[in-house]
Each structure stands twice: as structure tokens, then as C-alpha cells.
Amino acid sequence: MTIARVGGFARRFLGDRRAILAVSIVGLAATFVVAVFTKDSQAVGSAMFLPWVALLAFEFGVGAGVGAALLAFALFLVPSSEQGTALTAAFVVGRLASFLLIGAGVGALGSRLHASEVKLRRLVEGLPLAVYVETEEDGLTYVGPQIESIIGYPPAAWLASENLWRQILHDEDREQVLAAYSEAVAARGPFSREYRLIGPDGRIIWVRDSSTLVNNGERSHRQGFIVDITQLKGAEKQLERNGMLLSGLIDATVDGICLTDKNGEILIANRPLRRLVRGLEMPNEGPIHERLLAIADRTTEPERYAQRMRELADDPFSPSFDEFEVASDERDFQGFTAPVIGDDDEYLGRVWTLRDVTEQRQLDRLRDTLIATVSHELRTPLTSIIGYLELLGTGPEQLNAEDAGYVEVVARNALRLRHMVEDLLFLAQLDAGGFSLDFGDANLVELAGEAIEAARPAAEAKKLQLTLEHDQPLIVRADRNRLGQALDNLISNAIKFTPEGGTVKVVIEDRDTTCSLHVTDTGCGIPVSEQPRLFERFFRSATAGASNVPGTGLGLTITKTIVESHGGTIGYDSTDGKGTTFTISLPKIVAEQDEQPSRKPVPTALT
């Protein structure tokens, strides 16, 4: 056995409390034996007992120290008295005091140190990690009991085998970990690494191992701890997997999507957005507002576009929707944004969506052109057909009943077709920006009466009760023809969707600065699922009560546009199977120019 190993064994032995206790008890007993058998009080003085008393007192506390001191003093007196030593009071009290002082003092110190050690050990062993201590000469000298719950091997196994750690390192990590550890030891610097260990049951445990060199002067040791991060690694892997799924999800969308922080810096951007940004030649760096502003001069409305971007930067809490066109290649884009708000109403960032609607707008323009062209082409022959139908039977020879019935059918369908063409032309004018209103004073009660009289034949054919209720004439500023068209649409719709024997009622009310017109029917009603689409172009209800009713699905769209162009609003209240009420609210004065009628252009946007 080499000197180094002997020295290491001695240090481990002296570091064991049980070994120290055994040595102190044996040494005290040996001193007692020597004191009894040598009969020489000079050979066995108090100094021979005091070290062992101190050792016992240090381990067992004040009580043990006092007891050991009394016993050692009693045995010390035996050889002293047998040799005739004068046991004076001063001698006995002085020696007894020295024994008791050393025993009690060292015992008190030992109790405090022992309590501190227990407290520190409990603290260390209560942590969710395993502390270890190792030296260059002896290797691992201490390892916390938590190591067994983390890895599966008890502390005794780690202390008994110097190579256990190296043996259970994962094959894929062993080379890198050993190299990093050797480098840290050689440099007498810190070591920190995440790696895998193999437990006794074959399971893989991820750990974080951190240690540092503690220098105590002549001797130094490395102190560190091991933490189980298996669950953390699993969570990181799941988070990475979720991130890949999220990235795949947003990359698969048609729209360009990105997320920015509160300063406008892009955190996440999907592949379609990156492609659109390259096509628009936007800058690759900076807040998103600055990137968007950089292409303002390339749009068809630079000032409006730039102003909108500045508004978005100044008002982060409001959602937005905008559409713009790039002048160089006539590409149309729609932009949607929405704020991301935390639980404490803190602004965290914003979601941006960019959609290329160039193809859709091209189709819209083609459709509008087609509608306008077809409508114009149909209007002229329809006017001729209706005119000649009116001439039939006006000559000297009257039509017989059968022929007159045929002419009536043709005339009714021709008029219906003309109404459809007029609706299409209205929309074409609206989209082209050519729609305008001729304002003047109009009596709303009179307009409603005219609409009712025009619809009365259709109501009588279905045996409906058609009524008008009002208090007094109400004068509004309006385009009589357009507002009359809106009333015709509402009343004719009510008649079409009300079964035979039902009721259609028109009520006009004076509400100070506004007047309200209600059209109520007892028809089939509007299903809740269809109500959000009620004012869409060409929308037709799919319910059984409405599917057989003729129409284009443009009446409510046109009515809403006319009402809103007069500064009014339109709403509805409907119960499926029980009926519907449409309500128009109009200001009594929609223009302040009283001297002469005016023509007011109407916005081209339709809901």
C-alpha cells in the first residue's frame, strides 16, 4: 500500500465520527488502565485525561463532557492518594475545576457545532439535488443521499467505486463530458454540463452537473451538485415539437402572417409572408411600421397609405383592416391586424396578416364589367318588349281572354326581368363610383303610402292584410326615387315571404331628430345562422319557406346602401318561423342646403 493510499485511508478514517468516538473511548480507557496499574501520579497527570475528555465532550455534548471529566478526575485521584499525595482542598478543587471546565466548555462547543452540522446537512439533503465533494487525492469523498432517487445508485455505491460515474455515462455523451471535465480540472476552473446517465434499471436520466474548485490553502477540493433535468428535457423537446408544428401550420396557410412584439420587431414570420415581402421589396430590418412605410410611394394612394401606417403605430390596441394597391404591377393586398393583450390588459404585441387579393379583384372587375355590359344590352330590348306589350289590345281588334292572359304573363315576367336588370345596373353604378342622389324635401308618409299602393295587388293576390300606421306627415331630405326604391324592396320582400292570410304592417314613428319606419310581417322569419349574411350580395336563404321565393338576393343589399347614403341606419329583428321586422331610421334633415336640391355622391363600399 503506497503512502498516498495510507494517507487517504487515514483521512477518511478520521473523517468518520464513529471512528473518532471509538478512538476517544479506547484512548480514555487506556489512560485509566495506565493510571491504575502504574501507581504513579506523576506519570499519569491530568493532561493525560483531558484530550480524551475533550473528544468525548465534543461528540456527545455538555452532559457527556461533565460526566467524563468527573470519571477521569476520580480515577486520577486513585494513584495520587495511594502514593501519599496530599489531597488538599485547593489541589482537589483546582484539578476538578480544570477537568470540568474543559469537559463542559468543549462539550458546549461540540453541541453547537454538531447542531450547525445537522442543520446544514438537513438543508443540503433537503434540496432537490445531490451535492458531492471530491479531491484529487481521494476522489469522491461525499455524495448526498438524493443521488439514489436521481440516478438509482445509493451513496455507498458511489463512494465504493471510483469509476462508477464514468461507467454509467451515456455512450453518446461520454467522450465530450470526460474531455470537458478533464479540461476543467486541469485549468482548476468551473465545470458545467448537461448529459445523460444510465440508471441500474437501464433508464436514461438527463442531469445538469455543475462544480467549482474550493481552495482551502494547502488543500483544495471540488464541490458540486447534480440536478435531474429529465422532465425539463422532455418539456423542451415537446416545446420544440410544438414549435415545429406551429411553424408548419402557419407556413401552410395562404396568407402571410407574422407576430411582432410591443416595439414592432418581428418575432415570428411564416413562409408566405417572407415571399410577399421579397416581392414587395420591403426592408429586411427594423420595426414593421417602418418596413411598411418604406413602400408607401409605390402604392396608388401614398398619402393615405402612409397616414394609415402611422395610425397603426400610434394606436396599438385597435384592430384594423385595410386594402391597398401597388401601382407598378397593379397588385392588390389586404392587411389585417389585431393586438395581443395579456391577462393584465398589457399590450404584448400584434398579429399581422397580409393577403394577396389581386386575382380576386381582377375577377370582381371582370364580373362588374360583365354585369354592366349584360344589363345595358338587356335593358334596350326589354324596354321595346314592354312597350309593344302595352300596345297589344289597344287597336280596333280586342284580344280574346286567352290571348290577353298570355300577354299579361309575358308583361309580368318582362317587368320582373327589368327590375332585375335595374338592380344589376344599380350595383354596377355603385362599384364604378357613378351613383349619386338628388336630395329634396320628401314626405316619408307619402312615400310609404305610394309603396303600399304599388304592392297592394300582390298582397291581395295572397289575401294578406297590408296596413300603414302613422301620426303625422314627416318631412326628410331625401332622393324620392331611391328612398322609394328602398321602401318598395322591404314591402315586396315582406309580401313574398309571408304565407297566405298573413299580415304586413308598416309603422312610421316620430323620434325627435329622427324618424323610424318599421316593416313587420308574419312570415317564415330568418334563421339565426343566416342573419349575419342578410345584407350580402346575392345571398338567398336556404330555408324551406324561402327557397321557392323568386329573387336575385340584391334587394336588401341595395336597400342598405340607399338608407346609409341618406345618413340613416337599417336593422332587423327576426324569429325563425314567426316573422321579421325591418327598421329604417332616418334623420329629419340629412342636408343643410335648403335653397336648391343637391346631388350627393355615394361611397362605393358595400357591406
Describe this structure in words.
With 607 residues, the protein is an alpha+beta fold. It folds into five domains: 123 residues, no CATH class; 104 residues, Beta-Lactamase; 104 residues, 2-Layer Sandwich (Beta-Lactamase); 72 residues, Helix Hairpins; 166 residues, 2-Layer Sandwich (Heat Shock Protein 90), CATH 3.30.565.10. It contains 18 helices and 19 strands. The strands form five sheets. Strands 2-1-5-4-3 form a five-stranded antiparallel beta sheet. A five-stranded antiparallel beta sheet has the order 7-6-10-9-8, sandwiched between helices. Strands 13-15-16-18-17 form a five-stranded mixed beta sheet, with helices on one face. The radius of gyration is 50 Å and the shape is elongated. The chain starts with a helix and ends in a 6-residue tail after the last strand. 21% of the residues are buried. The N terminus and C terminus are likely disordered.
Q: Could you provide a short overview of the structure?
A:
The chain contains 18 helices and 19 strands. It has helices at 3-14, 17-38, 46-60, 62-82, 89-125, 146-150, 155-160, 164-167, 171-187, 230-251, 271-280, 288-293, 302-314, 358-391, 401-432, 444-461, 480-496, 555-565; strands at 130-135, 139-143, 191-198, 204-216, 219-228, 256-261, 266-269, 320-326, 331-341, 347-356, 436-438, 440-443, 465-469, 475-478, 503-511, 514-521, 569-575, 579-587, 599-601.
Top keywords for this entry?
607 residues, alpha+beta, Beta-Lactamase, 5-stranded antiparallel β-sheet, 50% helix, 22% strand, elongated, disordered N terminus
